[in-house]
Amino acid sequence: MRRKVKYIISFITLYLSISPLPTFAQNVTFTASTSETTIGIGEQFEVTFTLNCDDPNASKKFTPPKFDPFVVLSGPNQSTSMQWINGQVTASISYSYRLYARNSGKFTIPPATIEYKGKTLSSQPLTITVTQSQSKKQSDKTTDGVDVGDNLFLRAYVNKSHARVGEQITLTYKLYFRVSISGYDLIKAPTYEGFWSEDFDLPKQPPITTEVVDGKQYRVATIKKTALFATQPGKLTIAPLEVRCAVQVQVKRRTNDPFDIFFNDPFFQHIETRQVDIQSNVLSVTIAPLPANTPSEFSGGIGKYSFSASIDKNSVAAGDAITLRVNVSGTGNIKLVTLPKPQFPADFEVYEPKLSETISRDGDIIRGKKSAEYLLIPRNAGQRTIDPIKFTYFDLENATFVTHSSPRFEITVKPGKTFAGSTPLSTDKEAIRILGEDIRYIKLSTSSLKRKDEPSSPLVTILLLVVPPLVFLGTWSYQKRREKLYGDIHRLLFETAGREAQRRLKRARDLFEKGDAESYNAEVLNALTEYLLHKLQLKKAEFSLERALEDLRNHNVPEQTLQNLKHCIERAQFARYAPQTDTKTTRRELLDLATHVIQTIESTFRKQTQRLRRT
Predict the structure, then answer these.
(1) 455: pLDDT strictly greater than 90
(2) Domains of the chain with CATH codes
(3) Are the CB atoms for 13 and 28 separated by under 8 Å?
(4) How far is CA 206 from CA 117, 174, 222, 223, 255, in A?
(5) Where are the beta strands (DSSP E) in 407-509?
(6) Helical segments of 449-488, H only
(7) For residue 418, which of 61, 194, 267, 319 is within the disulfide window of CB 3.0 to 4.6 Å?
(8) Inter-residue contact 192 to 209 (CB < 8 Å)
(9) How confident is the model at residue 385 (pLDDT cuts 50, 70, 90)?
(10) What is the DSSP letter of 353?
(11) Cβ distance 181 to 245 under 8 Å?
């Protein structure tokens, strides 16, 4: 036994003497690299920032650079790798971005930074040259061993290259092919920076027509059609759409059997399906601004609209409800239209309006309707007036601003059963309940009246004296805060943004359970974008995902939450364009992640508010 132990100890000693102990890399570097240094307008390239170190867990707070004037299509895509070479452990952490070039010129991407063991490391800047023409012609593109030549390409068209802010531009993508195609998928949705977009519904199996291009006849399928509404003037670029086509090609048999040479003629060739990736051309449109003399009542509506406002009754008792409805309908950028806000008498209790919106895409024209329904409760008797409500939009056909005005509403408020200035304890918007009766029956018999000899408890006496004033002060404070809140619509939207988003996500969950994938993705996307608009108090015409992320970053929202938010919005948008890639599992993950993102942002804002109150 002692001899065996001696042999084991000798073996371990010999192994340690000839095998170096693991050591950690001492050289820490943070570098930037790019897949291309010279590209053409409309092409994509990848930028990667890599940290080589000995402890990947020691890295913190990666800060990307500003990528202007490039468009970020995806990223950051993080990856980590570990290596063990000759007893030395090294690690690398990479952050990659997929970018798209939209302007020609020579541009510099600034350094990125990362914190590592208390030090801030910076990468080197990158210089990218963007030329007018694409460096790789699509006609020369070969994918998966298939040389498509000029037999397969994707082309984008707009019905007008010059338009005004808010004017509809119809964007159409057509697939031209002279090869056999068994199907296609959208692998990268286009980016419409500077536009609000609305997709038209197209059949899943688009009809095939024929067109002649450069003297060659092609079969053509319209695979996507979108209405664009510019939200800013200037020269705007429309990024390309990327499509993966399943192309069927004839392939000869490969065999070492000499007798099979007789079967290598076209009659005995078999068919294989290959994947070919193609992208559309880049488009630019010039957007002219609206006239400078914009009226103060301008709602943001551009197109052709009608307006109406009405109340359900002109005579009412104090404490009873009145309903005021405001409607805007027509053709144009209906989603960017802001409904006018009426001015109500000071003694009217006004509840949060019930908003509704419908959009129609028939006949390649975007139409829609927006409505607001206000519940009003007059508190005092007398004659009250609601001034005319004005709605102003820009008429594209006549190139002028048009103002519609409602009539003046005269309302007679009669004395009601409730006391003037009283506030109902219930906030139910559907009905105002009678909380008590004015007359009580007088009890004539005194036979049941008994004298109570025991004195009242001091605690009960104190409670009877203290509690009513506290209840009164609490009710008064709540009412004052409520009046202030409803008088400030921006603050109201800010405070209710989280609850409204959770309500929409709950509706999305119901759509998910019903299997309505298209409506589900649209509801998730609307929940997130409306939440950001209300929480950050942004106008729809000014909204962009990049700006929203920057504003949230300024509010100290965690970077991982920002990346999750970006992933949710991009995933919901992409699923609308490419429903084939959307599965039940990805929809469930998207819903859970979106819910978590909103809860985290709400928690961050609450902590900020609490800190401000303490200071």
Answers:
(1) no
(2) 23-131 (2.60.40.10), 138-288 (2.60.40), 298-414 (2.60.40.740), 488-614 (1.20.120)
(3) no
(4) 57, 10, 6, 7, 40
(5) 409-414
(6) 458-487
(7) 319
(8) no
(9) very high
(10) P
(11) yes
